[in-house]
From TrEMBL:
Stretches assigned to the MTTase N-terminal domain: 9-125
Cellular localisation: Cytoplasm
Descriptive protein name: tRNA-2-methylthio-N(6)-dimethylallyladenosine synthase
Source organism of the structure: Maritimibacter alkaliphilus HTCC2654
NCBIfam families cross-referenced by the UniProt entry: miaB-methiolase, MiaB/RimO family radical SAM methylthiotransferase
Gene: miaB
Length: 443
């Protein structure tokens, strides 16, 4: 008999896609830790490889198969190596993954990874394991004991999952399921545990995080109420949340941006398009004008807030005129940051049936949109020079003698390291705006 308890098995996880996948990967590693697995930094050393996948655009989903192809040599050299696919491609494609790539041993969706320990046992017996249910139990409760070791000063915390909005292009309502909010007491408990481990900044995550409505003490909690409760946790210095839908920006949440000291002046508020015709076809349920009015109200509450967004160009039937409307909206908002994508047709979504915009035209629009966004983001960064702002330091900078952190507005900031440790929140005078980061000196 081999003594496996003295010889920990090695787990390698590769994470694709959004921040929620980053959070999920962390929780999966914790769940596997209970099975005697330790995480390693390279697939070559691993006894088990897990790909935590993203299905949002075709390119992201296809990456999984090319990555699996690359593991073939590893599996040939080490036949005991187990390979698993988790996340949204697992949810969307299920068994099909094992048909396309028979060396895959395990397929687990985003709602069932608390069952990984049993699944891994099954795989250990040489069987295949597949679970893409939407179970009734709360996976986070099953996983509840998080480790106590010290960790990085910033952390993600999932508070809400899934989406009921059904934008015509989006797979999220199918891969992550219906909107579900975690109860506030459990979130607050997890937040306190994170703070005890050295966390100073928490980013609340949800596909529709501002639709949060957790059943808690005194009834239904809004996201704003949750933020105010987090604001009372000693040792927690900063709160952020992502990602939001314009129609769920409630009055209390807007007000919190002006009143809650720990809520950072940064808001990711995707609009996708500035054309009312396209917004309607996207099933976004708001107009460009309504979005602009909303931004005005948010800025009235917190004038210095940095606005970030998401855009899709080349949505089916998008004309030049529609695209010009998007550029006009961007000019009106002045974004500090934005993510932009060429439309990718996703099987099973309503828009997948519609005629596509010419590929070269879509690429051209993407470049033009990105040039405008870059110019705005540049301007916002340049505007930081001379200002005194908060920086949470995370790690040594790339250059000798520097520390790197993030400003209140989420810009990377480099400062001379003297006397600064990871986890310190300090005031910094910004002296310079580089291409990707700011530089400054402690005040
Ligand atoms: N094609 C291109 N971009 C998409 N997004 C979501 N679905 C698609 C799609 N089918 C983008 C949206 C969303 C972000 C997370 O990804 O902009 O806000
Ligand atoms: Fe997808 Fe966001 Fe629309 Fe929900 S609100 S369907 S997650 S783009």
């Amino acid at each position: 008999m081999t003594d496996q308890s003295t010889d920990p098995k090695k787990l390698f996880i590769r994470t694709y896609g959004c921040q929620m996948n980053v959070y999920d990967s962390e929780r999966m590693a914790e769940a596997m830790g209970g099975q005697g697995y330790v995480e390693v930094g390279s697939p070559d050393e691993a006894d088990m490889i897990l790909l935590n996948t993203c299905h949002i655009r075709e390119k992201a989903a296809e990456k999984v198969y090319s990555e699996l192809g690359r593991f073939k040599d590893l599996k040939d050299a080490k036949p005991d190596l187990k390979i698993g696919v988790a996340g949204c491609v697992a949810q969307a494609e299920g068994e099909e993954i094992m048909r396309r790539q028979p060396m895959v041993d395990l397929v687990v969706g985003p709602q069932t990874y608390h069952r990984l320990p049993e699944m891994v046992e099954k795989v250990g017996r040489g069987e295949k394991a597949l679970d893409t249910d939407f179970p009734l139990e709360d996976k986070f409760e099953v996983l509840k004991n998080r480790p106590t070791a010290k960790r990085a000063p910033t952390a993600f915390l999932t508070v809400q999952e899934g989406c009921d909005k059904f934008c015509a292009f989006c797979v999220v309502p199918y891969t992550r399921g219906a909107e579900v909010s975690r109860p506030p007491e459990r979130i607050l408990r997890e937040a306190r545990e994170l703070v005890e481990r050295g966390v100073r900044e928490i980013t609340l995550l949800g596909q529709n995080v501002n639709a949060y409505h957790g059943a808690g003490d005194g009834g239904d909690w809004s996201l704003a109420r949750l933020i105010w409760a987090l604001n009372d946790i000693d040792g927690l210095e900063r709160i952020r949340f992502t990602t939001s839908h314009p129609n769920d920006m409630s009055d209390d949440l807007i007000a919190a941006h002006g009143e809650c000291a720990k809520l950072m002046p940064y808001l990711h508020l995707p609009v996708q398009s500035g054309s009312d015709r396209i917004l309607k076809r996207m099933n976004r349920k708001h107009t460009a004008e309504e979005y602009l009015r909303l931004i005005e109200r948010i800025r009235a509450a917190r004038p210095d807030i940095l606005i970030s967004g998401d855009f899709i160009v080349g949505f089916p039937e998008e004309t030049d005129r529609d695209f010009e409307d998007t550029l006009d909206l961007i000019r009106a908002v002045n974004y500090g940051q934005a993510f932009s994508f060429k439309y990718s047709s996703r099987p099973g979504t309503p828009a997948a049936e519609r005629p596509l915009v010419d590929e070269a035209e879509a690429s051209d629009r993407l470049h033009r949109l990105q040039a405008l966004i870059n110019e705005q983001a540049r301007g916002v960064m340049d505007g930081m020079v001379g200002r005194e702002i908060g920086v949470l330091f995370e790690k040594p900078g790339r250059m000798e003698g520097q520390m790197a952190g993030k400003s209140d507005y989420l810009h990377a900031v480099h400062v001379k390291a003297e006397g600064i440790a990871p986890g310190d929140l300090r005031r910094v005078r910004i002296t310079e705006a580089g291409p990707n980061s700011l530089a400054g000196a402690l005040v």
